[in-house]
């Protein structure tokens, strides 16, 4: 359907297709965790979670506690791993049955205190190990300390042990990734021997699922693939973008050679030029990096560059030679036009582009 305003269309059929594709790449007994942090990569976390629950996803993950609370408020009942909780939110985590990632001695100590204060027995947590990304996680040499702390309390139980790969999409980093896999195996086995029971082990994100089948362990975590992007042209062909960002032409101008367009006059017409003004800008997630002819939008099947500086609420495009009129639909990225390409042209990645679509943009769910 043609857009009549700025809208992010969210196609749940595409989500289902991508989920089934990714699920087909792992053994059926391997559990599937859907990463739906950051509003499900800029779309709609509750709507997507509900559909994914129907598809029998086993687990969800978000980055922060409030994202998990929003899912519970929306009626999501499956386990939700909070990847990066802060101790200020531990009470809320316990109140809303969220599963914290425990990534440091500080967090472990404080979470045990919260669980004990709430008279919890065997409250599920996941242990996060740092195997080389050097972002979050216990270092391998902290394993004895983790074991000792866990042996001293029955208030928590380890439901999962996981780590995160630094470069799973990059074949040139295969050696490094293999070392991460081996470190993960070794440290998780040490911890399992120490605690005496088997939690879920998980390591792979989307590119890990596709490139390292030997490292699927008990569960895989997929984010970007669910939304239709696979960090390679080959995989992108198999996936369908879930979100399509559309808008319309607000106004058309015919400007003369030598005239300029937009703030600071960053576009100067070298010849008579037809321009269109669109009702979205950097406050909607089309950041200034996309301006000054770095990337294109699509109108009636023709590409039109974004010209001049992106404004807060508007962008201008060059539509010279394109047959179009005010009110016509404009596609920024999505099903017919790759977000990866839109982002790449301006020097960034699909992850950043799609998660930047701001809450001002209307979301429209398509079944
Ligand atoms: C965001 C995230 C993922 C998802 O990664 P994709 O590349 O989007 O599949 C998985 N695991 C962790 C720890 C993450 O932070």
From TrEMBL:
Annotated GO CC locations: cytosol
Keywords recorded for this protein, A-Z: Isomerase, Pyridoxal phosphate
EC number: 5.1.1.1
Substrates-to-products reaction catalysed: L-alanine = D-alanine
Record: residues binding substrate: 135, 312
Pfam annotation, one family: Ala_racemase_C
Every Alanine racemase C-terminal domain range: 242-366
Active-site residues, record numbering mapped to chain: 37 (proton acceptor), 263 (proton acceptor)
Enzyme class, spelled out: isomerase
Residue ranges of the TM segments: none
Source species, domain of life: Bacteria
GO MF assignments: alanine racemase activity; pyridoxal phosphate binding
Pathway: Amino-acid biosynthesis; D-alanine biosynthesis; D-alanine from L-alanine: step 1/1
Cofactor or coenzyme needed: pyridoxal 5'-phosphate
A biological process term (GO) from this entry: D-alanine biosynthetic process
Entry-annotated residues carrying N6-(pyridoxal phosphate)lysine: 37
Protein role: Catalyzes the interconversion of L-alanine and D-alanine. May also act on other amino acids.
Family recorded in the similarity comment: Belongs to the alanine racemase family.
Descriptive protein name: Alanine racemase
Species assigned in the record: Mesonia algae
């Amino acid at each position: 359907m043609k857009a009549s305003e700025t809208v992010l269309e969210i196609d749940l059929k595409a989500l289902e297709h991508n989920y089934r594709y990714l699920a087909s790449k792992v053994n059926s007994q391997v559990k599937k965790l859907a990463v739906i942090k950051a509003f499900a990569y800029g779309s709609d976390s509750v709507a997507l979670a509900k559909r994914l629950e129907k598809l029998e996803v086993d687990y969800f993950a978000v980055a922060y506690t409030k994202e998990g609370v929003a899912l519970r408020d929306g009626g999501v009942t499956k386990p939700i791993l909070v990847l990066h909780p802060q101790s200020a939110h531990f009470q809320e985590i316990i109140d809303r049955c969220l599963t914290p990632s425990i990534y440091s001695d500080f967090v472990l100590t404080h979470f045990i205190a919260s669980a004990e204060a709430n008279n919890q027995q065997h409250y599920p947590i996941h242990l996060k190990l740092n195997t080389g990304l050097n972002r979050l996680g216990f270092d391998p040499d902290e394993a004895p300390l983790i074991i000792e702390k866990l042996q001293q309390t029955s208030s928590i139980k380890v439901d999962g042990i996981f780590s995160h790969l630094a470069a799973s999409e990059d074949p040139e980093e295969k050696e490094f990734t293999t070392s991460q896999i081996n470190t993960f195996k070794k440290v998780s086995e040490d911890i399992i021997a120490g605690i005496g029971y088997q939690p879920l082990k998980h390591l792979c994100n989307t590119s890990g699922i596709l490139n390292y089948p030997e490292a699927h362990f008990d569960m895989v975590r997929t984010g970007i693939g669910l939304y239709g992007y696979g960090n390679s042209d080959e995989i992108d062909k198999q996936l369908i973008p879930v979100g399509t960002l559309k808008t319309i032409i607000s106004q058309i101008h015919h400007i003369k050679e030598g005239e300029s367009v937009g703030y600071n006059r960053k576009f100067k017409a070298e010849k008579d030029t037809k321009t269109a003004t669109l009702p979205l800008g950097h406050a909607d997630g089309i950041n200034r990096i996309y301006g000054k002819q770095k990337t294109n939008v699509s109108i009636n099947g023709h590409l039109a560059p974004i010209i001049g500086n992106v404004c807060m609420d508007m962008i201008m495009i060059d539509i010279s030679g394109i047959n179009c009129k005010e009110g016509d639909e404009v596609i920024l990225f999505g099903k017919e036009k790759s977000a990866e390409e839109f982002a790449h042209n301006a020097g960034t990645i699909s992850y950043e582009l799609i998660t930047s679509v701001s809450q001002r943009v209307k979301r429209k769910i398509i079944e």
